[in-house]
Request: fold
Amino acid sequence: MQAVSRAIATNQAGPHEDLARRVSRALQHPLRKPIADHTHQAFEVAHRWLEGRAAPLILDAGCGVGLSTRALARRHPGHAVIGVDRSADRLSRDHGALPDNALLVRADLVDFWRLALRAGWRPAQHYLLYPNPYPKAAHLKMRWHGHPVFPAILALGGGIELRSNWRLYVEEFCLALGQVSGIAAEVERHVPEGDYLTPFERKYHLSGQALWRCHASLPYAPDLLPLS
Ligand SMILES: C[S@@+](CC[C@H](N)C(=O)[O-])C[C@H]1O[C@@H](n2cnc3c(N)ncnc32)[C@H](O)[C@@H]1O
Reply:
């Protein structure tokens, strides 16, 4: 695969000026979007699978074609690894058999995270690897830390790791995480050294772009998401 990826172009000079207000709003106002039927059904399948394994959970949110889900399952054979993505096309690409301790789920994360929280899921580790950046300032609300579902992501607790090729996305995520949890997380450089966890990680690195991460250990805090 030829790795050519253009650097992010944004009209933001620094963290979005509306970030703190949006995070406060998400903490105060319930997210009223109804849960889609297909995600309900997909979640039930995942829930039964997880109960059957009785192993600590690793969640790979926005797993794309599922290569990271496979790699994490091989690295952590004592864990149950669930990759979630809304793209049936990406999930259906043939990347070989799934390890026994891995599951790929087609679902909308905005619903899936809320169902996971309601069901009492507590991932040991939660990855958000190279989410769509939405770099225009007007699209803040589409970045995970600007979205009303953000409190649910953090409420699940455990280790959380976000990676991006856009430093500002990671900086905003760290700021929002600090606002919600009081935990000071720093933007760190991520150097894969040939060991790529995802296709986007590989593509960006081979295009000469720097990669960034935000990592934190969060308490389980189900009350963070306001009730609807
Ligand atoms: C830029 S790709 C990164 C994929 C993979 N993590 C990687 O690094 O190669 C972002 C992925 O997030 C998924 N995604 C975006 N919004 C989503 C949502 N609301 N629910 C589920 N998946 C979503 C997209 O379908 C896409 O596969």
